[in-house]
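<goal> How does this chain fold?
<body> The protein record starts here
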Amino acid sequence: MPRIALATYDPGTEPSRDPDLRGLIAELRAAGADAESRYWDDPDADWAGYDLVLIRSTWDYAWRTAEFLAWVDRVDALTRLLNPADVVHWNVDKRYLGELARAGVPTVPTRYLPPGAEPALPTGHEYVIKPSSGAGARYAARYAPEEHEVATRQLERMHAEGLTALVQPYLRGIDRHGERALHFFGGRLLHASRKGAVLVSGTPFDAGKTAHPNLEKWQPTAAELDVAQRALAAVPGGAERLLYGRVDLVDGEDGQPCVMELELMEPQLFLDLHPESRPRVAQFIIEAAKGS
């Protein structure tokens, strides 16, 4: 009976925002695993006592990136961690989008403005600013060209906190066709979902946002599957090292799918929307814990 820890965050006095966690643990136990959730920063956790530590909802990492990555390395040295530590290090910073683009994967055009960089912003179209390391639309905002002063203040705030900013065109296809999330587990497509636009014009960058509005099931197109598989294949070391991955796609200016994000650390699985996937996910996790 493999011992499995699902690493999550400590919500304090609030309920957990991870809707997948409780049902997935129940499914793992029903399938014969000794499974439990543990806060990733729990000082009393004996990570070496688990056959597998699965990163699930460590959603406060963006505020504590250095501490989180040190934990990743420590656990990876003690037991099997999935996805692996080097993949997490690569995926924690969205500058990986540049590597995907150089590998020929269609991606949202992206410029990177680290602290100290000149705040050169687009002048002819709407654009998005967000941090290169972040989750849940944290510090993300959408701007019109005339909002240069407000956008510059956001950059100044982010740079003061040591954050590198991503600047991307706001692709209008998101308003028409939403954002599609293709989930892969064990190297195969698990299910897909579509959500509406997250960033509403005029919403302050430091305001709370609904990360997955109007979520619904989705049947991916052949083109979407192709781009998603190409993105996973471009991960350093190869896609076969991944237990799971979520590829977030939007339509580019040409109407074709392109990668907005590649989630290889702690993507929400939307198992409430896709309950039929829960037994498959549990089986993949148990097989990984057994080393098969």
The chain is about 25% helix and 25% strand.
